[in-house]
Structure formats: C-alpha cells, structure tokens
C-alpha cells in the first residue's frame, strides 16, 4: 500500500512553556524533564540522537543512551572510540544531542564540545554493565564491516565460555558533551510551539524565546 504521508500529522495540545518556569541552570531543567519522562514510563527515556560531523563536513547521527548529567561535566555517553562517531569526534570536537519524548510532546536540543571521560570514569561505568554487554563491547569492532553475524556470535560465545576476566578495552569508554546551547521545545496547537533557548555567555546563560 502506498500511503499518503502528507496527511499524517498530530496536533500537540498537552502543555505550554513560560519563560518564568526556567529560573535555574538549564542543565537542571533538562534533568527535570528527563525525570518526568522516566516517571511517565516513556520507552528509552535516556535515548538521545547524537550528531557529529565528518572531515568532509558531512553530518551523521545515531541514537545513544545518556548515562549521567550534571551542570559541570555535562552529558555522558559510552561507546567505541574507534567507531564512526568516535573517529568523527577525534577530528571535530563539536556535537549535538536531541531528546524527543513524543508522549510529552517535548524536544530538547543541546549543542557543545565533546570530551573523552577519564579511563577511571570509563572503568566505573564499564564494570557496572551486565556481563553480556561487556562481552559485546569487547568483541564488537563497532562500525566495521563484518562477513556474517555468525562470526560475531562465535566470538561472543568463545569469550563467554572462557570465563576470562572482562576488562574494559582501551578503545571503549565515555564521552561528555559540555553544553553551550540548550533549547526546550514544547509542542503547541496549530504548530505555534514554545521554544525557550539558553546560550552560554561566559559564566552566565542568556535565556530567550525563539519563534516556532
Ligand atoms: C535506543 C538505542 C540506544 C543506543 N545506545 C547506544 C550507546 O549508548 N552507545 C553506542 O555506542 N551505541 C548505541 N546505540 C547504537 C548506535 O545508534 C549506533 O548504531 C552505533 O553506536 C554505531 O554508530 P556509528 O557507526 O555512527 O559510530 C544505540 C541504539 C539505539 C537505537
């Protein structure tokens, strides 16, 4: 069936944003919105789309899970440093994150510089992961071509049955995106949405409203 996508749409009616409700550091408001997403049982509430840029200035994006947020050290995620995103971040340290929680009709856009976490911070998170996830991180050369799924499964089973200690590979670890721009978006009726944006200005954050 060839569906007419041009008429697929939903109106956003649930909530609104006032400048006055954003009185704290914008990262604190991100944490509040994320907590509301968790309380509302939204699937994968910590998932965000991470965009990076290649050497040829081509953007690419993929979903990652945010594992820690604070005002000083930003938004943490974990991945393979030799992956496509890892290679892009090596050359261009800027990235963006996008959370979309459809059930709350909310989006948050975040931009900033991405830095590697320390090996100690990466160890702490790696060691907290379930055994199978550790094995996958060790055996998967993320973003490389593989001949078949069977090869991956054989590597997985072989390490699993070896009972070797599962140590974090040096090429697997955390990054932190340190924000300099955070936009809170709330869907409104008839596409007349609310957008409140924070931009960093030295030690302060300027708050403004953007047209939808
Ligand atoms: C819900 C969800 C969460 C994901 N979380 C992560 C993550 O935290 N880290 C990661 O490396 N890949 C994660 N992935 C896989 C990535 O989207 C992506 O396929 C992978 O990182 C390779 O991307 P790259 O080739 O651009 O480096 C996740 C995918 C989904 C759909």
Automatic annotation (TrEMBL):
Residue span, Pyridoxine 5'-phosphate oxidase dimerisation C-terminal domain: 172-212
Necessary cofactors: FMN
Recorded metabolic or biological pathway in which this protein acts: Cofactor metabolism; pyridoxal 5'-phosphate salvage; pyridoxal 5'-phosphate from pyridoxine 5'-phosphate: step 1/1; Cofactor metabolism; pyridoxal 5'-phosphate salvage; pyridoxal 5'-phosphate from pyridoxamine 5'-phosphate: step 1/1
UniProt domain Pyridoxamine 5'-phosphate oxidase N-terminal: residue ranges: 34-158
SUPFAM superfamilies per the UniProt record, alphabetical: FMN-binding split barrel
Gene3D superfamilies, sorted: Electron Transport, Fmn-binding Protein, Chain A
Family per record: Belongs to the pyridoxamine 5'-phosphate oxidase family.
Record's function text: Catalyzes the oxidation of either pyridoxine 5'-phosphate (PNP) or pyridoxamine 5'-phosphate (PMP) into pyridoxal 5'-phosphate (PLP).
Protein name (database record): Pyridoxine/pyridoxamine 5'-phosphate oxidase
Source organism of the structure: Plebeiibacterium marinum
Gene name of this polypeptide: pdxH
């Amino acid at each position: 069936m060839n569906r007419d996508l041009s008429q697929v749409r939903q109106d956003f009616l649930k909530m609104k944003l006032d400048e006055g409700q954003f009185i704290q550091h914008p990262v604190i408001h991100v944490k509040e919105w994320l907590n509301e997403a968790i309380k509302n049982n939204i699937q994968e509430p910590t998932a965000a789309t991470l965009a990076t840029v290649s050497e040829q200035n081509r953007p690419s994006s993929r979903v990652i899970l945010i594992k820690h947020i604070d005002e000083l050290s930003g938004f943490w995620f974990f991945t393979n440093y030799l992956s496509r995103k890892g290679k892009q971040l090596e050359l261009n340290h800027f990235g963006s994150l996008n959370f979309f929680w459809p059930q709350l009709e909310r989006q948050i856009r975040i931009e900033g510089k991405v830095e590697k976490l320390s090996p100690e911070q990466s160890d702490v998170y790696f060691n907290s992961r379930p055994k199978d996830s550790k094995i996958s991180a060790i055996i998967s050369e993320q973003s490389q071509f593989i001949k078949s799924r069977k090869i991956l499964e054989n590597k997985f089973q072989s390490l699993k049955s070896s009972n070797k200690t599962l140590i974090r590979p040096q090429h697997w670890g955390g990054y932190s995106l340190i924000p300099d721009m955070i936009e809170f978006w709330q869907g409104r009726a008839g596409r007349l949405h609310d957008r409140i944006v924070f931009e960093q200005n030295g030690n302060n954050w300027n708050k403004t409203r953007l047209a939808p």
